[in-house]
Specification:
Elements (H helix, E strand, L loop, with lengths): L32 H18 L6 E9 L2 E12 L3 E10 L5 E9 H4 L2 E7 L4 E2 L3 E9 L4 E10 L3 E11 L2 E13 L1
Parallel strand pairs: 2-10
Antiparallel strand pairs: 1-2, 2-3, 3-8, 4-7, 4-9, 5-8, 6-7, 9-10
């Protein structure tokens, strides 16, 4: 004969269903120095962007020489693939009409941009400069050369713009642009 086992009675104490308490660990943030720099940059960059630190800005330069005043408004800061204008104004400050006046744009500077469009048109392009000739500039008269350009190469770009009367440099400007990605 086999004995039947009796069913077990439930215990009067229910099992503990709560997990054990976690161990005590001191709470502190521990970041290596390069991560601290990253966090600071993530906080500062949006603030700088909100105040326009990375937007387009223009610089203005001016120079005078014998019989010529040269001034330029150029993009000192612009974004990659953003269209902008470079305007150079030439004024005859002498007493005689300037028959042969040429404005030179250094290629090392302008070749860092794309979609170049000159008004008036380029008369000659050499390996070192784009040349725009202006004719019959009367005393006191001004003429503007406009270059439309698009930021193509990011980084800092520097160059020169100069005016020449009878094959001698009359005035010279230095320009500098930063193109952000």
């Amino acid at each position: 004969m086999t004995k039947k086992s009796k069913p077990k009675k439930p215990s009067s104490n229910p099992p503990n269903l709560n997990p054990p308490e976690p161990p005590e660990v001191p709470r502190r943030v521990s970041l290596p120095p390069n991560q601290i720099v990253g966090v600071v940059l993530m906080l500062i960059l949006p603030i700088l962007a909100a105040f326009g630190a990375f937007g387009e800005s223009f610089g203005e330069v001016e120079a005078s020489g014998s019989d010529v005043r040269l001034s330029a408004s150029y993009p000192s800061r612009l974004r990659l693939e953003l269209n902008s204008n470079l305007q150079v104004t030439v004024q005859n400050t002498g007493q005689q009409t300037l028959d042969t006046l040429a404005v030179y744009f250094e290629r090392d500077y302008l070749d860092q941009f794309a979609n170049l469009s000159f008004a008036p048109s380029v008369t000659e392009a050499t390996s070192s400069a784009y040349i725009v000739e202006l004719h019959d500039l009367a005393p006191g008269a001004t003429q503007t050369v406009t270059v439309q350009l698009t930021g193509e190469q990011y980084g800092s770009h520097k160059g020169r713009i100069w005016a020449s009367v009878d094959d001698r440099t009359a005035a010279e400007l230095n320009v500098s642009s930063v193109v952000f990605p």
